[in-house]
Design goal:
Layout lengths: L3 H7 L11 H13 L5 H12 L4 E2 H11 L5 H13 L3 E5 L5 E5 L7 E5 L5 E4 L2 H13 L10 E4 L2 H10 L3
Parallel strand pairs: 4-6
Antiparallel strand pairs: 1-3, 2-3, 4-5
Length: 169
Amino acid sequence: MMTAQGRAAQGRGRAGRQARPAGTQALAAYLQRMGLKHSRQRERIAHAFFAMDGHVTVEEVVARARRDDPRVSLATVYRTMKLLADSGLATARQFGDGQTRYEAAEGRGHHDHLICTVCGAIVEFSNDRIESLQTLVARRHGFDVENHKLELYGRCQRCRRATRVGSRP
C-alpha cells in the first residue's frame, strides 16, 4: 500500500517539484518551438489559468496567480494569455461586455454560448441539430465553413425572475 508521501513523490518531477499539468507542458513546448523565453512567472500564470474553469478575465487570472507568487504582474499575465491563445491552448472570447475572456481549448469540443445581458452569466451548450443546420445553410450558399461561433444574448432565468419580482403588475 502506497503512503501519501509515496504518492506525492510519484507525482513530482526532477528536484522534488510538482509535475507540470499538460497545459503548462504544452506551453513550454510552444515557447521552445518559437524560440521564446520560458519563465517561472509564465508557468505559474499558465498553471493558474488551467486550474480555473469557465470563461475567465485577465484580472481573475492575476488574482489566482498571485496566490502562488504576489510578484506576478498584470502585463506578464496579458502577454502570457496572448501566448496561450496564439498557441491554441486557450481561446479568447468577446461577449459584448468590453472584456476579453479566456477559456481553455485543450481537450474541449466545439460548443456555443448563451450570455445573460443582465448578470453576465455564460452558459455553454452543444446541439447537433444546430450544427447540422449551419452546415446545410452554408452548403446551400456554396460556402465552406472553416470555423464558427454561435452566441445567443438574452436574460437568464434568474434575471427574468428578478425582473418580474421587482416590477409592478
